[in-house]
Amino acid sequence: MAFIRLENVSQQLNRAHILKDINLAIERGEVFGVIGPTGAGKTTLIRLLDLLDSPASGRIVFDGVDVTRSRSKRLSARRRMAYVQQKPIVFSMNVFDNVACGLKWRHEHRESIREKVQNTLSLVGMADYAGRDAKTLSGGETQRVAIARSLVTDPEVLLLDEPTANLDPISTAKIEDILETITKSKHLTVVISTHDMSQGQRLADRIGVMMGGELLQVGTPNEVFHSPRNTRVADFVGMANVLPGVITAKEANLATIVVGGRALQAVADCATGDTVWALIRPEDIVFAPSQTSASAQNTFEGSVTKVSRDGALVRIEIDCGFPLVGIVTARSAEELGMETGKRLLASFKPAAVHAIPRYTRSDQQKEPDTNPALS
Amino acid sequence: MGELWDGIVEAIRLIVSLDPEVMEIAWRSLWIAAISSSISFFLISLPLGSLIHFNNFPGKSVLIALVQTLFSLPSVAVGLIVFVTFSRSGPLGVMGLLFTPKVMIIGQIIFVTPVTLGLVISALRGVDKAVPETAMALGAGRFQTALVTIREARFAIVTALMMGFARAITEVGVSIMVGGNINGYTRTLTTAISLETSKGAIEFSLALGFILVFIALIVNVALFWLQYNQGKSPWHSFGWKMSRNN
Questions:
Q1: Residues of chain B positioned with their CB less than 8 A from the CB of A158
Q2: Residues A127, A32 within the same domain
Q3: Which residues span the domain enclosing B94?
Q4: Nearest Cα residue in chain B from A134
Q5: pLDDT tens-place string over residues B57-81
C-alpha cells in the first residue's frame, strides 16, 4: 500500500481550479520530484501533502489513514512530516531556538532537545551559528536552518518546495549535498518540487510533471525526459525537436516516419498510417562535416540556420528538409566551424526518436487520461 | 507667558520638593491607570484579540470595524454610562462603588479596551502569514501556533499596552464623573487640574500638567527603547528562551 495517496484531489482558490483531479501514490522511502513551471500548482500540491490546507474535493490517505478532514488526525500526521517552504521564514529568536521549536511543541525533554538540535545543526554545517539571531542569516544559511528545523523532529516524510530557488550556485550545491546525504542516511520519504529539471533528475527516483494544475506524467527521470507523454511535457523537459510526421511503414518495432518529405527511422509502438509527433532531444543529435559518409540511419544533410551560445554549450539549428535543433560543446562547434549557412550532417539513432500520437496542441486538453500517476 | 513660566517654576519646585499632595495625586493616577490598562490588556484585549484574529466567523470584519469605531469613544460618554450604572438607582448601585477608585478603574477599562483590543488585532494581523503556517508545518497545534504568532508580534502588542496606559492616565471624563474628584481618595492628576483651574490656581494646575506630560514622556521613551532594542529588551523572554542554559 502506498505511504501517501492522493485520490481525485482538486483544489480551488476563489472558484478557480488550481489543482485538477490529482491521483498520486508515493511509496515509503522514495524521493519523488514534482517538476513544472512557475504557477503550475506545485506549492499547492505540497501544502496539501503537508495537510496545511484541505482539498476542495478528493481524499488524502497517509499511512493507510484518511486524513482529509479530521483536524486531530491531520495534526498527528503532520507531526510525522516536515515541510521546507520555498521562502522559509525564521522566527525572531536565535538559530538554536528556531531549530528547537518543533521539539518543544512535541514536548521533548530539555536535554534531548539540546542534543538533537546540536546534532542537526552540525549535519547542515551550522553548528557555529547556534547563538546567532536567525534574522541576520543569509538566504542559503536561512535555508539550511529551515532544513535543520525540519529534520530535527526526525520526520518520516520530508516535503521540500523549491528548496534552492533564489539561491546562488554554491549555496544550491551545498543544499543538494545535504539533501542527498540526509535522504540516503535516514531513509526518508521525500517529495521535492522544483522548476529546475536537472535538479529533479539528480535528486528524484520518480518525477511527476505538473502543468496548469494537472499531473501530466509520472515516471522515472529517464521516462519523463526521454519519453514524454505529450508535447506539453516534451516542451517543458527540453525536447527541442517536436516534429509532425506520419508513420508510413512498420517492421517489428522499427517505424518509418515521414517528416517534411524525409523519412526517419524510429523505435515506436504506433501503427502504419498514424499521425505522430517525432520527439528528439537536442543532445541526441550528432553533427559531422558534410563530406563524411552519410550511409547511417537517420543521417540528414542540411545548412545551419542559427548558432547561439548557451553557457559552455552551443545550440545549433539546422534545416535539413525539416528543422532540427542540436547541442554541441563550444569546442566541437569551433572544430566544426559552426556558422550560419554551413553545410553539415546531422544524425541520431532510431532509439533517440520518441513517437507519440499527434493531436493539435489545443486538443491535448481532451486527450484521454489513463491516470498515469497511479502506480 | 508669565503664568506659563510661573507654572514651569512651580512644577519644578513641587517635583523637587516632593510635595506630598502632588506626589499622592500623581501616585494615585499612576496606579489606577496601571491597573485599568493592565486588566484591559492582559485579561481582555490579548485573549479576546487573539480569539478574534485566529478564528474565522461570520461578521468578523464588522466586529473589527466596530472595535475601531469605538477608538473615538468620548471619555465623558463612558463616564456617564458608568455613572448611571453604578449610581444608587442604577442596576449596580447596590454595590456602592460610585465615587471610589474601583469604579474609576472599571470606567477606564471600558474606555481604553477598544484601543488596546484594536491594536492587539492590528498587531497580530501585521505578522507575516508565513509565521503561523511555518509553525503549523513544524507540528505546532492551534494554541502553540497562536503563541508563536503573538511572540512575533510582541513589540506591536506591547505598544497596545502602552497606548492603553497613556489613554487611561490622561483621561478626565470618566475619573471626574464616577470618581468625584474627592481629595485624598479619588483625585487624580487630570481631575485635579480641572478643579484647580476652575479655582484660578493656574500655576498649580500647570505644574500638575507638566507632571502628566513628564509621565507621558517616560512612557514614550520606554516604548521607543523597546522598539529600538528589539532583541535585547526584557520582553525578549515574552515567549521562552530555550538556549539560556547553553
A1: none
A2: yes
A3: 2-231
A4: B231
A5: 999 999 999 999 999 999 999 999 9
Question: Which pLDDT does position B173 carry in this prediction?
Answer: 93
Is residue A124 domain-shared with residue A199, that is, in the same domain? yes
Higher pLDDT pick, B232 / B225: B225
Average pLDDT over residues A114-125: 92
Q: Output DSSP code: residue A270.
A: P
Query: If pLDDT is split at 50, 70 and 90, which confidence band does B235 have?
Result: very low
Phi, psi of A13 (to 5 degrees): -135, 120
CA–CA distance from A293 to each of A296, A339, A344, A346 (Å)? Answer: 8, 21, 12, 12
The identity of residue A224, as a single letter, is V
- In this structure, what CATH number is given to the domain that contains residue A321? 2.40.50.100
- Say yes or no: A37 and A159 in one domain: yes
**Cβ-based burial of B216 (10 A; exposed 0-12, middle 13-18, buried ≥19):** middle
Q: Does the interface predicted TM-score (ipTM) exceed 0.85?
A: no
Closest by CA to A190, choosing from A148, A140, A155, is: A155
What span, in angstroms and rounded, lies between the C-alpha atoms of A289 and A301? Answer: 9
**Is A245 in contact with A276 (CB distance < 8 Å)?**
yes
Long-range CB contacts for residues A249-258, cutoff 8 Å, separation at least 24: A254/A350, A255/A355, A257/A353, A257/A355
Q: Inspect the interface and report whether the beta carbons of A113 and B242 lie closer than 8 Å.
A: yes
Q: Which of A158, A191, A226 is the last residue of a domain?
A: A226
Main-chain phi, psi angles of A193, to 5 degrees: -100, 140
pLDDT beyond 90 at B115: yes
Residue A98: closest CA among B243, B226, B231: B243
pLDDT of B223 higher than 80: no
Distance CA A264, CA A298 (A): 5
| Set of cell numbers at residue B6 | 510661573
Task: State whether A52 and B241 contact (CB < 8 Å).
Answer: no
Mutate to test the interface with A, among B133, B144, B229, B243 (most CBs of A within 10 A): B243
Residue B202's SS3 state is helix
pLDDT tens for A326-371 read 999 988 888 888 888 888 899 999 999 999 988 654 444 444 444 4
Say yes or no to pLDDT of B233 above 50. Answer: no
CA distance A76 to chain B (A): 8
Predicted confidence (pLDDT) per residue in A133-190, tens digit: 999 999 889 988 999 999 999 999 999 998 888 778 888 888 888 888 888 788 889 9
Co-location of A110 and A144 in the same domain: yes
Q: Would the pTM of this model clear 0.90, i.e. be above it? A: no
Query: For chain B, what is the domain count?
Result: 1
Residue A373 inside a domain? The answer is no
What CATH number is associated with residue B59?
A: 1.10.3720.10
Last residue of a domain, one of A208, A226, A244: A226
As a residue count, chain B comes to 246
| Count of domains observed in chain A | 2
Q: How far apart (Å, rounded) are the C-alpha atoms in residues B187 and A49? A: 63
pLDDT score of A89: 92
